[in-house]
Structure formats: C-alpha cells, structure tokens
Amino acid sequence: MITLGIETSCDETALALIETRIVNGVFECKVINSLVHSQAELHSAYGGVFPTLAKREHGRNLVPLMRKLLETSGIIGEKSTSTSPGKASLKEVLESFGSDFPAQNPDLFESFDHADFLNNIPTIDSIAVTEGPGLEPALWVGINFARVLGALWNIPVIPVNHMEGHIVGSLLNSEATNGTWQRLKNMDFPAIALLISGGHTELVKITSQEQSERVSDLSAVGQRQSGNTFRLRYSIIGQTKDDAVGEAFDKVARLLGLPYPGGPHISKLSHEAWEEKIESSVKLPRPMLRSGDLDFSFSGLKTAVLYAVRANSGTDGQLTDVFKKGLAREFEDAVTETLDSKLRHAIESIGARTIIVGGGVSANHRLREQFQKTADEFAIPLLLPTRHISGDNALMIALAGALDSGSPLDLANPAKTPLKAQGTKRLGAEV
Questions:
Q1: Cα dihedral sign, 269-275-279-285
Q2: Fewer Cβ atoms within 10 Å of its own Cβ: the N or the C terminal residue of the chain?
Q3: Within this chain, do residues 126 and 198 fall inside the same structural domain, yes or no?
C-alpha cells in the first residue's frame, strides 16, 4: 500500500510517499521520497511564525512540491478526464467544492491552474493529512489539498494527529535509506513519550489494547491491517502550563539577538561555551522541579533570561560574546535538567519500559546525550528520531496514516467531508 503524507501544521510545507506491507505478519515500511520546504527564512523577520504568511506560502508551495514529489518518485498512472467512467477531471472536482474553497485558500486555488499533471492518477492508495494540532489557517491549506486529491483520485483521506506523527516517526530505523524496506523499532509497553517542539511540551503514556505488553516490530499493526484490531492508547500525563520548550528557545534567542529559529543558534553558542570553558555568571532557575507533578513551565525561565540580559547589557545596549555564550550554556543546561527530571519522574510513575522522544527540539545534541544516559540508567530503550524526522515533516504523517488505515473518510461528497482543522487537537484514546 502506498500512502501520501501531507503536513502543513506550521511553517514547513511537506509531502512524502511511503509503501507499507505485511511480511509473515510483520509490518514493514519503505520510504519512497520525502520533501520539506522550509519557510523559516521568511518568518525570521518576525522573530517567529506569522500565521497569515504561513498560510499563503503553503498555498503557493503545495502544487509545485507535489509535481516534484511525483516526478522524482516515479509514481505515475492513467489519465483521468471528465469522459473517464466514474472519474472527474480536476476542473470538475474544484467546481464541486463551490465558492468556499477559493475564498478560504485563494493561493492554493489559484495554484491549481498549473496542476493539469494531477489528472494523471498516480499509483497511490491513500492520503494522510495533518488535521491538528497547529495553526488553523495553515492546517486548512493541507486539508483542502488532501480533499481535492482524494476526490480527484478517488482514494481515502486519513486525518492524522500531528503529535502522533512525532511519536511514530521515532520508530523509523535511522539506518534505512530511501527505497529500503525496514521494520519499525520494537516498543515495550507501557511506554513514555516526551514530545518537545515549538508548540508542545508533553509527557504521554502509551499503552496497547493488546494483552501482550510487547509489540515486536509492531506486528500487531500488521494483523490489524489484515482485519483484526490494534490500537495504541495515549494519555497525556504532563504538559506545559505556558510556553512550550521550543518557544522558549526562540524567545531566549531573540533576547540574545540571535536569528529565528533560535534552537540551533543557542545550541551552537552553548557548544562553544563548553569548548572554551565559559561558565555563566548568571544562575537560571530549574522550573517546577519540586512541583510533585509532571507538568512544565518555561515562562519564568524566559523572564529570568530577560532580567539577566537587561542587567548585563553595556551602555550601548549590547551584550559581550562571552556573556552570550555563557548564558546560552546555562539556559540549555536549565532546560535539559528540567526535561530530564520530569522524564525520570514519569518513567518511575508508570513503570515505563520504553522511552520515545519526538519533536523538533529532540534534535538538540545536549538533550539527546542526557536522555541516552537516563535510558541507560533505567536499562530501557530510547527511541529517537533522525534529525530529518525530528522537525515537522510529512514522512511521519504518512506513517501514522498507514498505521491507521482503518479510519479513512468517506469522499462520496468531498465538499462536505467532516475533515477540518483542529488547532488544539489533543492526543487521547485514539490511534
């Protein structure tokens, strides 16, 4: 089965194609292609993501990115025209959506003027698209794109929770290259997932409906695709009360005069501080370590950095390079200790047998090192995504959709499909 993934939850326009199969009852996956178009440079002028700009750019980028994806993947098919039995042309499909579509997503609607290639039905079996959480204006662009393709190609559309995408993305084998079949990493239950990104900081308990507490290579998922039932159960047991950790990185970077996105720039300064043995003259708080729960708060940490910057700015309002490096190191240390302390608490609380870390902040080298030490101490596996998969991408969305292939939407009336953007969608008792 070939699944197309579509991701537009924030400032990355992403498409991916994967193929999945069941071999001797075991689920296997092959990455055909994965493309990501970043808008980071455009948003850097605003110091963060500007939703209206993100929406516009998604609308402009999806059709050309799809052309590139199909051309480089060799996924082609028969010509579809209005005269083909039971099939509609792109023009007819767009007309079926009425006036709402062009009004809601004008840039995407206009881009279809140069999308005649979509009338060639590719050998794709299903479409997985992010429906939330994320920026609703941006989400709607990907959703409407999926609705058009689903109706045009007469294939099911599967709504995907973006955060589940980050979880299953960490199950992909980092050593597998495009075109290579792979089995997903083993996961023992209960598992704990730490999701750390620009918009989220969550601890999620993962269990299975299966009586067995071990799913070897997600073989039960393969059984589900053969007609049986398999579901992962998610329960959020800890979350941020204010800023997400990725948002804190960006805000602190702005205070230090660093570009957006801030995480890589802070990590670079922190690394230089370690190499040059620079320590900060400022001691930052480790928020909520003694709260007794699994929640997070980063607003106070950000405020402490603000006060430190104000107190140490020169008469010209500038900070010395030494101060910046030391403070970057101290901030990264504070974040690392906070996240690791809560993760340890969560492991002990639920008796976790697997650690999963996902989200863009998981690319941070200091965090990855510390989480590995923690996993080694508890003698349980740590599943980390590759750096390509750690950020927002459509590969993880396609995989989540392929694993959830039993819940496609009815496209009999594509203009009225129940699929809609859910900016605050949460992980719960869902797959």
A1: positive
A2: N
A3: no
Tokens encoding 26: 């075991």
Name, in order, each residue with C-beta under 8 angstroms of 136's C-beta and a sequence gap of 6 or more: 421, 422, 423
Long-range Cβ contact pairs of 251-257 (< 8 A, separation 24 or more): 251/302, 252/302, 252/305, 252/331, 254/47, 255/305, 255/306, 255/309, 256/309, 256/319, 256/324, 256/327, 256/328, 257/319, 257/324
Contact status, residue 375 vs residue 382, Cβ threshold 8 Å: yes
Residue whose pair of structure tokens reads 């996105």 in the numeric block: 261
pLDDT value, residue 231: 64
Burial class (CB in 10 A: 0-12, 13-18, 19+), 113: exposed
Question: What confidence category does residue 249 fall into, taking pLDDT thresholds of 50, 70 and 90?
Answer: very high
| CA within 13 Å, CB half, 357 | 25
Q: Read off the pLDDT of residues 177-191 as tens digits, 9 standing for 90 and up.
A: 788 999 999 999 999
Residue 277: which domain range? Answer: 186-219+230-380
CATH assignment of the domain containing 404: 3.30.420.40
* Closest-CA residue to 135 (of 50, 217, 60): 50
For residues 149 and 76, the model is more confident at 149
DSSP state of 314: -
* HEC profile of 201-227: EEEEEEEECCCCCEEHHHHHHHHHHCC
Residue at token pair 């294939």: 155
| Phi-psi sector, 138: left (phi>0), alpha (psi -120 to 50), beta | alpha
Do 147 and 212 fall into the same domain? no
CB atoms within 10 A of CB 25: 12
Residue range 314-340, pLDDT digits in tens: 878 899 999 999 999 999 999 999 999
Is residue 428 included in any domain, yes or no? no
